[in-house]
Amino acid sequence: MLRRIILDVDTGIDDALAILLAVRSPEIKIDALTTVVGNVSLEKVLRNTLNVLQLEGVKDVPVYGGLSTPLVVKPRDASVVHGGDGLADTNLPAPSLRAEAGFAPDIICERILDGRGDVTLVTTGPLTNLAAAILKEPVIAKKVKLHVMMGGAFFLTKYGQGNVTPVSEFNIWHDPEAAKVVFDSGLPTVAVGLDVTTDPAASLKRSDLAGISNDGGAQPLVRRLCEYCLKSGGYLHDPMAVAYLLKPDLFTIEEFPVDVELHGSITRGQTVADSRSRWRKSHFQWSPERGAVKICTKVDGGRFLKLFMDRLGSVSRAA
Ligand SMILES: [Ca+2]
């Protein structure tokens, strides 16, 4: 069955690769691409998103601008990882493709409440747009069948440590208040966090570049992004969230209550999963009303990389 998704992005090297993976996957139809401040400013995120679609020759995916600041704090970019332009310093010219007039949180609400009840949300940036949508229309949390997010560091595997601070992952750290709104809403969330996205078996290696064609459409960009990505570990964070939709059997899932640290002087933005076996159900029960989040705790790295290379290694779209 064709899966209809809203993809919320802060494009970003790995967001660009995630968009292309989604566009090239016949199992998915992107109903709307919504953009949010994160890796770079909203203006750059929009420009990058439109450029990716334009290079790929995609004209039928509407793109919307969203929030240009987190809910409470000021934006802090990640250009040290993604390049000054957010796209590996490719400095692409301004795209001729244009964004639509709507505002991302409104679009998220509209598409979820349109009566069809079949929207899957995929977020590969901070949760600011989604939180704003939930604050506007809390009922959407009950209408969405599935939310797959790239985000969080849950300390459930040896790789699940923070990438901005020792305990905080970028998307959550950038807007912890938004993440808390999302976790508290009861939205059925699958978290594809650093516990799996930084597993070396699922990360690009220099030898993989030989399998990435430089020819045609968006391929020169794909090649450049993959090369740049190798400078910081070869991690394919955001494509892995899309891969969850395509092949959920690549992942092992465990469910735990999750809360977000908002006040810690050194732990702000930490995603705290209550993985205790001894005390969780005892009189020391923590947050009994809190719903569980499905957290990816293992990925078949070899099969994930094969899927990525099959669909992004050359311009031909997967059948
Ligand atoms: Ca991202």
Summarize, please:
The chain is α/β, with parallel strands linked by helices. The chain has twelve helices and nine strands. A nine-stranded mixed beta sheet has the order 3-2-1-4-5-6-9-7-8, sandwiched between helices.
Which helices and strands, and how do they pair?
Layout: E1 3-9, H1 13-23, E2 28-35, H2 42-56, E3 63-64, H3 79-82, H4 104-112, E4 119-123, H5 128-136, H6 140-143, E5 146-150, H7 170-174, H8 176-184, E6 189-192, H9 194-197, H10 219-229, H11 237-246, E7 251-260, E8 271-273, E9 292-299, H12 301-312
Parallel strand pairs: 1-2, 1-4, 2-3, 4-5, 5-6, 6-9
Antiparallel strand pairs: 7-8, 7-9
The structure holds calcium ion (CA).
